[in-house]
Every structure is written in C-alpha cells, then in structure tokens.
Amino acid sequence: MSTTPLSSKHSSKHDMKADMLHESTSVDPSPEAAAPVAAVIGKSARARRKPAVNLWLGGAIVLGVLFCAVFAPWLAPHNPLDQDLLHMLSPPAWMAGGDAAFPLGTDSLGRDVLSRLLYGSRIALTVAVIAAFGAGIVGSVLAILAGYFGGWVDRSISYLVDLWMSFPPVVLSLVLMVSLGVGIENVILSIVLVDWTRFCRVVRSEVMVVRQRDYVLAAQLLNFTHLRIMLREILPAALPLMITLFSLEMGVAITVEALLSFIGLSVPANVTAWGVMIADARVSMHESLSGLLFPVLAIVITVLGCNLLGDGLRVALDPRMRSKGE
Fold first, then answer.
1. Fold of domain 49-325
2. Residue 131's pLDDT is what?
3. Is 242 in contact with 202 (CB distance < 8 Å)?
4. Exposure pattern of 242-265 as b/e (b: 16+ CB <10 Å)?
5. Which runs of consecutive H residues, i.e. helices, occur in 224-273?
6. 191-212 tens-digit pLDDT
7. 125-136: string of b/e by CB count within 10 Å (b at 16+)?
8. For the chain, which residues make up each domain, given as ranges?
9. Are 184 and 130 in contact (CB under 8 A)?
10. Which of 180, 207, 284, 312: disulfide with 186, CB 3.0–4.6 Å?
11. Band of the pLDDT at 322, cuts 50, 70, 90?
C-alpha cells in the first residue's frame, strides 16, 4: 500500500483554498455583470441631478419674474391703464388681425395685456415676499417657543394652532378682508394671519428634534440663557427648513392674492393685478381668450417656480435629504 507524504497533502489543501479564494474575489468583466452596478450609479446620479434641476429651474423662474417686476416701467410698451378703444380685444401680434404695437393683444377696454402682466407681477411679488416673511416670523417664533420649552407653553400654542386651522383658509381670508377693507396692506395682513400656522406646525416638529441634540444639551448644562440657546443653537438648525417653507409660502400668497383680487377684495380697481385681469377678461372670454389666458399662465408659472425652488432648497440645505439622494 502506498502512502501520500504529509507535505503533499498540505500543499494540495493550500492550492484548493487559493483557487476558491481567487474564484470568490475575482470580478466578472462581462457586460452582464457590470449592468447592475451601472444602473445603481446612474440612479444615484439622476437622484442628485433632479434636486439641482429643480433648484436652478425654480430660481430662474422666480428671478425672471423679479426682473419683470423691477424693470416693468422700462419693459412695458404702454401704460397699463391707457385705453385704446380702436384696438379693443386685439389678438396677439402673431395671430391674424394682431398688431405689433400690442405683442400679447389687448383687453375689452383696449389696454395692453403685456404691460398689465408686467405691472401685475409687482403686486404679486410684493404680496408674496412680505406676506411669506411675516407669516414665517410669526409662525417660527411661536414654533421655537413651543418646541424648546414644551410643557404648558407647547400645549397652549398647539391648541391655538389647532383652533386656527379648524377654519377653512379661504373663508377666513374672505372674512378678514371684509373686516379690514380693500388694500394691499390688508391683503398681506390677512395672509399672515391665516398662514402663520403652516410655519408653526412644521418648524415646531423640527425644533423638538433639535432640542435633544448633544450640543443643545451641553449649552443647557453650561447654564446659557434660554434666549441664547434659541438664537445660537436652535435657530441655525431650523433655518434651512424655514427658508424652504418661505419659498413655498410665496406660491400660496400669490394664489391667495389672485383669488382675492379676482373677487374685488384685494387691490383697488385702478391697480393692475393678475386677478383683476382675469376678472376683467371673464366677460369677454368668448370673443378673445388672450386677456384671460396670459394672466392665468403667469400665475401658474410663477407658483410653479416657487414650488420648484422650495423643493430644490429643501434638498440642498438639508444634509439628510442630500444623503438620501446619494
């Protein structure tokens, strides 16, 4: 009977282990094996690219509307209140019967639609920025107080928010406007009084999470004042969310202002606003749609820009959202 040397047995076992290790760690260079990896990389790249597209597209739309609002006196070909009874209900310049002097046509009183759109953007952005800022200040201050102190402070503010949100926002806006009267200042005030709850409820939840973080607890152990902790520790952590809500609230404010001006409860009749344009064009919509179509498109595009900007800012300013996209 023949026997195998011990060294030969160890050598064969070593070679078998090496072959198994090589097979387990080798990479299959075939396209079929690389396809799943490429799909994952492509999906991650698309996820990172989408928020950037939203941010840039929304920012471009908002900046474009801002440019039109600031330079409206130089961009508008006519005074928005001038009437030309010889060119009533003119179609846009590229349509049959259009006039190059009125690029987007005229309304039922012969007023230039393009000029009224440009001047209407001033009212829309003024109301949007000031109302969103006011609602953000009121709602965020109450949210920080409720989320930081908790206890009876949190319960009191939460009850107030629940009570306030039990009223339908549109009905509450109408009641406030009837009580306050017509005027752009009253429109802004009514939007602030209605929409501060949007900020308060969302920011409060964020503050309650931030309050439990180590650096906030360390500041409390060092006996820093409550005001310093809220301003130096809580506020910076909640600021990205507040900026996102601000951009989204701008779109809401533009819609509310257009609704109120449509029913005659926003600005006076001699002030050009997009909602006023829609109300004026309603009676002549069967003869010409340009006076109705263009202000509606202006509202839709501007609100879409605010929403895209808010969505892009939400991802760009929140590290947790960026990590999900990656």
1. MetI-like fold (1.10.3720)
2. 96
3. no
4. bbbbbbbbbbbbbbbbbbbbbeeb
5. 226-229, 235-262
6. 999 999 999 999 999 999 999 9
7. bbbbbbbbbbbb
8. 49-325
9. no
10. 180
11. low
Give the predicted TM-score (pTM) of the model.
Answer: 0.80
Residue 57 CA to residue 34 CA, distance in Å, equals 34
* Positive or negative torsion for Cα 217, 221, 225, 231: negative
Listed in sequence order, the residues at least 6 apart from 74 whose beta carbon sits closer than 8 Å to its beta carbon are: none
Tokens of 73: 């006196």
Report the C-alpha gap between 200 and 145 in whole angstroms. Answer: 10
Crossing angle of the two packed helices 169-180 and 184-210, in degrees rounded to 10: 140
Q: Please tell me the number of Cα atoms within 13 Å of 8 on its side-chain side.
A: 3
pLDDT in tens, 16-57: 444 544 544 444 555 554 445 444 444 444 545 566 888 999
Specify the DSSP class assigned to residue 112: B
Q: Could you give the maximum distance between any two Cα atoms of the chain, in Å? A: 122
